[in-house]
Amino acid sequence: MGIQLTGLAQAKHKLQRTLSGRIGNVTATSNVPKGHVAVYVGEGNRKRFVIPISYLNHPLFQDLLNRAEEEYGFNHPMGGLTIPCSEEYFISLTTLLNSS
User: Fold this and answer.
1) Percent of the chain scored above 70 by pLDDT?
2) What is the DSSP secondary structure assignment for residue 22, as one 8-state letter?
3) Spatial separation of the C-alpha atoms in residues 59 and 12, rounded to whole Å
C-alpha cells in the first residue's frame, strides 16, 4: 500500500509542477470534471484527452510522465501536460487501465 501511495504522491507532485502558474488560466481547467486531468497526446498534431487521476498511479503511466518531464520539462508552451507518445499507444494504455 505504501508503494502505491508513494507513486501517486510522486505523480501528483509532477503534475503540480507542470501545472503551477496555470491555475488562474480558465482554459486549463474548463471542461475537466473533478478527479480528472487533461493531457495532450500525439506527435505533431496533439489531441486533448481527459483522464481519471487514478491513472497517474499506474507504473506505465508514470513512465510516460517521466518521459514527458525529460522531453518537455515543466514549462511547456502549450500550457498543459503533454505526453510524448503516439495517440495509438496512449489509447491502448488507457483502454488497458480502464479494464483493470
Assistant:
1) 64
2) -
3) 13
